[in-house]
Design goal:
Blueprint (H helix, E strand, L loop, with lengths): L2 H11 L7 H21 L3 H13 L5 E2 L6 E2 L1 H12 L16 H14 L4 H22 L9 H4 L1 H12 L4 H14 L13 H21 L15 H5 L6 H4 L23 H14 L4 E8 L1 H7 L7 H5 L2 H11 L9 H4 L2 H7 L2 E5 L1 H6 L6 E7 L4 E6 L12 H16 L1 H13 L7 H8 L6
Parallel strand pairs: 3-4
Antiparallel strand pairs: 1-2, 3-5, 5-6
Helix pairs in contact: 1-9, 2-4, 2-6, 2-20, 2-21, 3-4, 4-5, 4-10, 5-6, 5-8, 5-10, 6-8, 8-9, 8-10, 9-10, 13-16, 16-18, 20-21, 21-22
Length: about 450
């Protein structure tokens, strides 16, 4: 059996009752966490642009745009919601694959589930399977893939196609074709970083859109490459050197990858988070004393993505490890309000950035991607040196959030958009999904919501 066929058989054979309890719990948490990012991100300019274009190009009544309560086709809603959820840099993260699975996978699953009047357990099953496929493909191409390719786009489309296929009850043959069509659309390059372009947000929206399109085409009889992953001119050969195809099937059907998922507490690139956590620990010990110098040492990929000592825009600041650490030391957090034009223009942040440096530690590089460790060393004006090392940021499986902490993060993001009452209803509806209510029950609070006062 080919590798692609093995995944197809797994998708079609796995039922809700096959999911371990911890996988169901983490799926529920991941859906709630994603909803917060989709709602808050949906208020931003890139999301408004995506919605405006999708309203013309992908109209319909099938599925809901979460931030507005309006409807589009399933393709359109998945595109807009996926784009929105990847804007504020607070969507989830699977570290071993360096992949943000929710942004491409959940909007695809939710849009198809709403279109098909599916139930809660159908949605949970589809999301869990989408994560499993997307993460396994991303692990197989990591870390070499990451040099040029953005896995949330390239591997996310496989996960989105898997989730949509599960909801459409495709046959194994059809799922093979859906994955083949998804893989031939896989794309997403890191060059957007050079300009701070909106392309990163587009990556998630297009992966969600293309995943549904791939499954819909397969359902209608459209064929795709049957060895899209492992073929001599397939995804692995084209985008990784080397690839590790054995990671796709290791523990397949037993170890559900969504259990390894993590949540972000800081509104910046995940490669900054261990450094930010170290800075927050140091801040308590600094106790307001003047800082002379900050030195950060971390792993190579973190520097490749976030070494920017002089960010010019809030978006660039989200990808600056120097800025993230400096603002965490100054403000005691790295939330949305720390990544604004006003905060970036502050004299205090500029002065501290000029005394902040970042460098590679080869030992930390050798441990990546299993461990994303950073060390922060602060020298005070009186000569005192304070240091902290963090290996696992808060929110990741080795340092997890509780249900209450996930809900609190959700309210922080959602309350300003839909109001506390509607947000509380959404928490209740997400928590009810394992009891198998209609998925429309999750959508109704967003359609019926009261004006935010």
């Amino acid at each position: 059996m080919t590798l692609t066929r093995t995944l197809a058989e797994f998708i079609t054979a796995t039922r809700f009752d096959d999911l371990p309890t911890e996988a169901v719990v983490m799926t529920r948490r991941s859906i709630l966490d994603w909803l917060g990012s989709a709602l808050r991100g949906g208020t931003t300019e890139p999301a408004r642009i995506a919605h405006k274009v999708a309203s013309r190009a992908m109209p319909g009544k099938d599925s809901t745009v979460l931030a507005t309560g309006e409807t589009l086709s399933a393709l359109g809603a998945a595109f807009v919601n996926g784009t929105a959820s990847h804007i504020i840099e607070l969507d989830d993260l699977h570290q071993a694959s360096t992949f943000h699975p929710a942004a491409p996978i959940i909007p695809a699953a939710l849009a198809v589930a709403e279109r098909r009047n599916a139930r809660g357990r159908d949605l949970i099953r589809a999301v869990a399977l989408g994560y499993d496929v997307g993460i396994r493909v991303a692990e197989a191409v990591n870390p070499s893939h990451y040099r040029y390719w953005h896995p949330t786009a390239t591997c996310g489309v496989f996960g989105a196609a898997a989730a949509a296929s599960a909801l459409l009850d495709l046959s194994p043959d059809q799922v093979v074709h859906a994955l083949g069509t998804a893989g031939t659309q896989a794309g997403g390059l890191w060059e957007f970083l050079a300009d701070g372009a909106m392309s990163k947000h587009l990556h998630a929206g297009m992966a969600a859109h293309d995943g549904i399109l791939s499954a819909d085409l397969a359902a209608a009889g459209f064929t795709g490459a049957t060895r899209i992953l492992e073929g001599p001119r397939g995804f692995f050969a084209a985008t990784a050197d080397p690839a590790h195809p054995e990671r796709v099937t290791a523990g397949l059907g037993r170890d559900f990858k969504i259990v390894e998922n993590g949540f972000k507490l800081h509104a910046c690139c995940g490669h900054t988070h261990t450094a930010v956590d170290a800075a927050l620990l140091l801040r308590e010990r600094i106790a307001g004393r003047p800082i002379e110098r900050i030195d950060i040492d971390t792993y190579r990929v973190a520097l490749d993505i976030t070494d920017n000592p002089a960010p010019r825009t809030p978006y660039e600041a989200k990808f600056s490890i120097q800025y993230a650490v400096a603002v965490a030391l100054l403000d005691g957090r790295a939330g949305l309000e720390q990544f604004t034009e006003e905060r970036l223009a502050g004299d205090d942040i500029g002065a501290l950035l000029s005394r902040t440096s970042a460098s590679e530690n080869p030992e930390r590089t050798a441990r990546y991607p299993a461990v994303w460790a950073s060390h922060v060393r602060v020298t005070l004006s009186d000569g005192t040196v304070l240091e902290e090392t963090v290996e696992h940021p808060k929110g990741m499986p080795a340092n997890p959030l509780t249900d209450d902490e996930v809900a609190a993060k959700f309210h922080d993001l959602a309350d300003p958009v839909v109001g506390h009452h509607t947000a509380a209803r959404l928490v209740e509806e997400v928590n009810r999904l394992p009891d198998d209510p209609p998925v429309v029950d999750l959508i109704l609070p967003l359609v019926q919501r009261l004006p935010v006062i």
